[in-house]
């Protein structure tokens, strides 16, 4: 007897991979649960709600926040159970062969199969290591860009040299008064095309340069000036700013992968899996950024394919004689009534 209900599939993580897995498992008539650490669904896309996303198949450019809405809407089509604010810390198996997912709050979830859609783990931005910096987090020191509007006509300093920093410099340049990008090394790490766009967008790159000190405005409330230090000659110079954005990457909470009672083969901080989304443990599958194999595409588009593969594998784990893949939408009985309703709505307009 289980203290909790038994599910066919439990998806850990409610980002793009987890949401599409929830949709697809509903399509395959599996009893589905999502467990998400955050109080919301959407995963890492919440880091860039106002970024324009161009590379999701079949979609015209779409804002991150709009994509979240679309993905959540699709993910909830078959009304999976969703457990928010729960961090899965370990996976074990009971005597009946079912998986038990243990959470940080000592809850147990019982499931026949598991899909790990945990992205890079639970992400926390790497904070600026300058004493007292945290007091500016309520005014003009940012670790994510939640609203483009607040950066309009502002002088912005972005610190970081990876994709995220380069992306934000390009996104903000057209609306900002001026964007400076400081990076402690000589070469930025973003995509080549994005790095070329920096110059076209008028972004001033301060390479081999680091933030040394944040100097407050006279009312002590905001950062007014940033003291930057050249790593070439140690010389410092001051820059007046309105907003400072830090993109120094993320600390990953990898407790689940490292401490799980059931161990899975890993590749660095990811799961070493198969092109069909299998892991080294039968019954446990992986989808999205957490999955590693030679053909893996680390984009939202790639997460969708992993998710469908993972669900199809989970379905056959539970019911070996089941079809290896789901029916396309047009041939699926589950959509017949929904299609009728949608058509009625479409032709009424
Ligand atoms: C700044 C930025 C810009 C990007 N731009 C693009 C773009 O333009 N196009 C594109 O295709 N991709 C882009 N990406 C990448 C894209 O966001 C990721 O590929 C995608 O989010 C991966 O989806 P996922 O579901 O695998 O993981 P995630 O989105 O990371 O979701 C994982 C979820 O799992 C949860 N979780 C983790 N561990 C646990 C646990 N132990 N218990 C419970 N819940 C847990 C997390 O809280 C999170 O909600 C961008 C990424 C960043 C950072």
UniProtKB/TrEMBL annotation:
<comment type="subunit">
    <text>Homodimer.</text>
</comment>
<dbReference type="InterPro" id="IPR036188">
    <property type="entry name" value="FAD/NAD-bd_sf"/>
</dbReference>
<feature type="binding site">
    <location>
        <position position="123"/>
    </location>
    <ligand>
        <name>FAD</name>
    </ligand>
</feature>
<feature type="binding site">
    <location>
        <position position="48"/>
    </location>
    <ligand>
        <name>FAD</name>
    </ligand>
</feature>
<dbReference type="InterPro" id="IPR023753">
    <property type="entry name" value="FAD/NAD-binding_dom"/>
</dbReference>
<feature type="binding site">
    <location>
        <position position="289"/>
    </location>
    <ligand>
        <name>FAD</name>
    </ligand>
</feature>
<feature type="binding site">
    <location>
        <position position="330"/>
    </location>
    <ligand>
        <name>FAD</name>
    </ligand>
</feature>
<feature type="binding site">
    <location>
        <position position="88"/>
    </location>
    <ligand>
        <name>FAD</name>
    </ligand>
</feature>
<protein>
    <recommendedName>
        <fullName>Ferredoxin--NADP reductase</fullName>
        <ecNumber>1.18.1.2</ecNumber>
    </recommendedName>
</protein>
<dbReference type="InterPro" id="IPR022890">
    <property type="entry name" value="Fd--NADP_Rdtase_type_2"/>
</dbReference>
<feature type="domain" description="FAD/NAD(P)-binding">
    <location>
        <begin position="7"/>
        <end position="314"/>
    </location>
</feature>
<keyword id="KW-0560">Oxidoreductase</keyword>
<feature type="binding site">
    <location>
        <position position="36"/>
    </location>
    <ligand>
        <name>FAD</name>
    </ligand>
</feature>
<keyword id="KW-0285">Flavoprotein</keyword>
<comment type="similarity">
    <text>Belongs to the ferredoxin--NADP reductase type 2 family.</text>
</comment>
<keyword id="KW-0274">FAD</keyword>
<feature type="binding site">
    <location>
        <position position="44"/>
    </location>
    <ligand>
        <name>FAD</name>
    </ligand>
</feature>
<dbReference type="Pfam" id="PF07992">
    <property type="entry name" value="Pyr_redox_2"/>
</dbReference>
<dbReference type="InterPro" id="IPR050097">
    <property type="entry name" value="Ferredoxin-NADP_redctase_2"/>
</dbReference>
<keyword id="KW-0521">NADP</keyword>
């Amino acid at each position: 007897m289980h203290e909790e209900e038994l599910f066919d599939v439990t998806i850990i993580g409610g980002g793009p991979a987890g949401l599409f897995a929830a949709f697809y498992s509903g399509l395959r008539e599996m009893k589905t649960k999502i467990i998400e650490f955050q109080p919301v669904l959407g995963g890492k896309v919440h880091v860039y709600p106002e970024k324009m996303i161009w590379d999701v198949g079949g979609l015209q450019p779409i804002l991150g926040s709009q994509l979240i809405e679309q993905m959540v809407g699709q993910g909830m089509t078959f009304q999976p159970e969703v457990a928010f604010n729960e961090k899965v810390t370990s996976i074990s198996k009971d005597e009946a062969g079912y998986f038990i997912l243990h959470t940080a709050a000592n809850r147990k979830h019982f499931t026949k199969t598991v899909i790990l859609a945990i992205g890079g783990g639970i992400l926390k931005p790497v904070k600026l290591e300058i004493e007292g910096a945290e007091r500016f987090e309520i005014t003009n020191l940012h670790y994510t860009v939640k609203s483009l509007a607040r950066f309009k006509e502002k002088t912005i300093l972005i610190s970081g040299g990876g994709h995220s920093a380069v992306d934000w410099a390009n996104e903000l340049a057209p609306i900002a008064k001026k964007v400076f990008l400081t990076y402690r090394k000589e070469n930025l790490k973003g995509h080549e095309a994005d790095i070329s766009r920096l110059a076209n967008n008028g972004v001033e790159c301060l390479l081999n340069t680091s933030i040394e000190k944040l100097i407050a405005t006279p009312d002590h409330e905001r950062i007014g000036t940033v003291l930057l230090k050249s790593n070439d000659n140690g010389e410092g110079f001051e820059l007046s700013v309105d907003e400072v954005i830090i993109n120094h990457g993320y600390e990953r909470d990898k407790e689940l992968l490292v401490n799980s009672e059931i161990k899975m083969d890993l590749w660095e901080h990811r799961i070493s899996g198969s092109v069909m989304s299998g892991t080294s443990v039968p019954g446990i599958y992986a989808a999205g950024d957490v999955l590693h194999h030679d053909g893996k595409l680390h984009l939202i588009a790639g997460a969708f394919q992993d998710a469908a593969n993972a669900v199809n594998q989970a379905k056959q784990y539970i019911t070996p004689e089941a079809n290896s893949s789901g029916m396309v939408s047009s041939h699926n009985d589950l959509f017949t009534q929904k299609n009728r309703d949608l058509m009625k709505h479409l032709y009424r307009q």
